[in-house]
Amino acid sequence: MRIFVTGGDGQLGRAMAEVGKDGELYPGRHDADDITRPEIIQTICDFKPDVVVHAAAMTDVDACELKPDQAFLVNEQGTRHVAQAARRAGALMVYISTDYVFDGNKESPYLETDPVKPINVYGQSKLAGERATREAADRWLIVRTSWVYGKGRKNFVTNVLEWAKTQPVLRLVKDKVGSPTYAKDLALAIKHLAQISATGIYHVSGEGACTWVEYGQEILKIAGIEKEIVPIPFEELKRPAKRPSYSVLSNRKLGTSGFVMRSWEAAVQDFLMNRDVLERKGPL
Ligand SMILES: NC(=O)c1ccc[n+]([C@@H]2O[C@H](COP(=O)([O-])OP(=O)(O)OC[C@H]3O[C@@H](n4cnc5c(N)ncnc54)[C@H](OP(=O)(O)O)[C@@H]3O)[C@@H](O)[C@H]2O)c1
Q: Were both Cys, which of 51, 147, 214, 233 would link to 180 (CB 3.0–4.6 Å)?
């Protein structure tokens, strides 16, 4: 399978490169392969991909709120370029979307058929990317995921470890519920869906759900660190962008396709067992 990955330096992009080692994979770089420039269409076509995994995005939720034009340029217009390229190349377009397309008012895991209603610019621009994918691509797969962590950049897991070293107590949010997703597991699920030529919308996230407090407690427990956690309301962080209160995604449809996601706790354990992450020698 020949896979072109946009956002190749990001968390998912790096994980795709790991799980796609058995085939040919082109990892698109932000500077050389900017998706907001139309030239990206020719670059993708020249690679002759079977699958385009579109992982590049403006992912900083608060920056999107402050710079909506930039958010839509990257997440909508950039996606349209990538989808056009996939159509021209005859490839399956895989667009990576987000739990933030939902408003968070549900109390049970979101299904692919649930109505979307984003409450921040990031969610709105990613939803516009979903529409651009449907309009411009011929064969498309939209994979919605949530709370992604992996190698390649700072994320909640690495932040908690950092804060545990530098702060007297950890102040973590108690009123947002979601599902942490390990980029490697997400990449394996995407590869599976591409191999069975799945199309349409699929939800893919770590199995189970937690608050940011419970997520932090699990990270500390696995890393063997004792630290006090002070639960706080999200409001206290004074972030520019709102977040949905509940954004758990149901993996049921993915399961019926023959791929089972492991629990989010097992995945965090796997990630933390990697010594590059902890940047220290010896046992956890
Ligand atoms: N992270 C999450 O919690 C989360 C949750 C739900 C869905 N998602 C979606 O999952 C996908 C992968 O997320 P991730 O965590 O792997 O993101 P990430 O680590 O932030 O990686 C995104 C990559 O896209 C690149 N990029 C940004 N603008 C670009 C442009 N104009 N042209 C080309 N490349 C560009 C970034 O480069 P720079 O670093 O140089 O900007 C970065 O390498 C994204 O589509 C995201 O919306 C993520």
A: 147
Q: What is the pLDDT of residues 231-283, one digit of tens each?
A: 999 999 999 999 999 999 999 999 999 999 999 999 999 999 875 555 544 43
Considering the candidates 100, 122, 215, 246, report the single residue annotated as catalytic.
Answer: 122
Q: b/e per residue, 9-20, with b = 16+ CB within 10 A?
A: bbbbbbbbbebb
Helix, strand, coil distribution of the chain in percent, nearest 5: 45, 20, 40
Verify whether ligand 1 is closer than 6 Å to residue 24 (CB atom): no
The ligand 1 atom nearest the CA atom of 100: 6
Could you tell me if the CB of 133 is within 6 A of ligand 1? no
Does residue 29's CB lie within 6 angstroms of at least one atom of ligand 1? no
Cβ distance 253 to 205 under 8 Å?
no
Question: Ligand 1 mean position to 230 CA, how many Å?
Answer: 30
Query: What topology is assigned to 2-154+181-206+248-262 in CATH?
Result: Rossmann fold (3.40.50)
Q: Give the pLDDT confidence of 195-219 residue by residue, as tens digits.
A: 999 999 999 999 999 999 999 999 9
